[in-house]
Amino acid sequence: MSLFLCNTALQTLCATHLPALSREEGLPESDIRAALEQGSMVLLGNPAHPSLAPILVGQPAKVKINANIGNSTMRNSVPCELRKLAIALEAGADTVMDLSTAGDLTAIRQAMLAACPRPLGTVPLYAVAQKYIDAGEDPALFTPQELLAEVEAQAKQGVDFMTLHCGITQRAARWATEKNGRVMGIVSRGGAILARWMLARDEENPLLDHYAEVLAIARKHNVTLSLGDALRPGAGADAGDASQFEEVIVLGHLARRALAEGVQCMIEGPGHVPIHEVAGQIQGIKKLTRGAPLYVLGPLVIDSCPGYDHIAGAIGGAIGVQAGVDFLCYLTPAEHLTLPDINDVKAGVMASRIAAQAGEVALGRPHALRRETAMSRARKNLDWEGMKNAALDPSIIDARRAEHVKEEVCAMCGEFCAVKMLRSDAIAGVTSVT
Q: Quick one: DSSP state of residue 431?
């Protein structure tokens, strides 16, 4: 059955927003509709999200960037998280995910939805587990009904996309955690909670068993399911193992089932993958999921750079984009160390934007090539305003040139500027010495 016939909320969004999205992406409306129908693209947008500007993710739309924010039990300042949200959007993030795990999560989410004109994502399992942790109980004591109720409550609030770890099976959880299994085991918080739930009860994943109910909620509100990679590798040594790819195979089946029932889906991708394996992993995942939009954390190409994981992630992200990644989740310098601060958020967004630009240049995407050409021409002309217009971060140009802003050249070369030296008028003025 047609996606649009099943999903009336998506029909409404397309009627309102598709013309603007077509102009923004440089794609005909007919191409967008065709991509949405076949599941290679999703339109992120819940009609209940106030003042929302929806976006498109997936081939052949532009690569998008997500910024994760949210408090923790060790650092809990809602005003600070709202400031991070603003910084992320100012830096060019296309979406934001609220991963808060402390305080009044419903109120925090409502404040973020009101402050965020772009799609907002969440992980509903965190809110369910938080209630048990706050009560001093095991987070894996929740019931399937509690989890479904939380998914529905967040959908009604206006959440646009949700990470739901529907694809981790009891068997794969055992493979990842057994004595001779992985170096890092399971590093996904949601994946670990579900694995604990399954292994303690000797039962299957409740999100898998109750997938039909999840789809009904998502379809009603046009919530895009971001099918989570509970078994993403947390160390390069674990990349590409049986646990990871069993989950990918399951996610591919779940995505096809969702599309047939009028629900949009993305697939979440690997975490730590050595550089020589990145392209192969991305291509394999895309093939197993029939081209569904791929949302990737990194991938981090090395494990040994705490404080600089945004760089390791950008390297992997650039290769990933060239291989078919559609959506990059940022990493910040705080990854593996602490909760990111405001400076970390901007650094993470910029690193992912650089990765996206590098990958799209390699693919020959017209919008990416135009930016590169504009920058090169502006540099040739020592046109600083032109450079700002072409830069991914225009503010850095003014900040770094503050001391010599009136100079035509930069402080690196000064009057030794190669560009200025070889201008035709400058050469014509050279006096011959014999």
A: P
User: pTM of the predicted model, to two decimals?
Assistant: 0.95
Those residues with Cβ within 8 angstroms of residue 9's Cβ, 6 or more apart along the chain or in another chain: 46, 47, 219, 220, 221, 222
Distances from the Cα of 274 to the Cα of 37, 186, 355, 415, angstroms? 34, 18, 16, 44
pLDDT of residue 323: 98
CA pair distance 280, 278, nearest whole angstrom: 6
CB 142 within 8 A of CB 128: yes
pLDDT, the chain, mean: 95
**What mean pLDDT comes out for the span 193-197?**
98
Burial profile 220-236: b = 16 or more Cβ within 10 angstroms, e = fewer: bbbbbbbbbbbbbbbbb
Distance CA 250, CA 282 (A): 16
Residues 238-260 have pLDDT tens digits of 999 999 999 999 999 999 999 99
Stated length of the chain:
434
Residue type, 363: L
Taking only the tens place, the pLDDT of each residue in 300-359 is 999 999 999 999 999 999 999 999 999 999 999 999 999 999 999 999 999 999 999 999
Architecture of domain 3-363: Alpha-Beta Barrel (3.20)
What span, in angstroms and rounded, lies between the C-alpha atoms of 343 and 346? 5
Amino acid identity of 321? V
Domain residue limits, the chain: 3-363, 367-428
In this model, does residue 212 exceed pLDDT 80?
yes
Which residues are CB-contacts of 53 (< 8 A; sequence separation ≥ 6)?
17, 117, 118
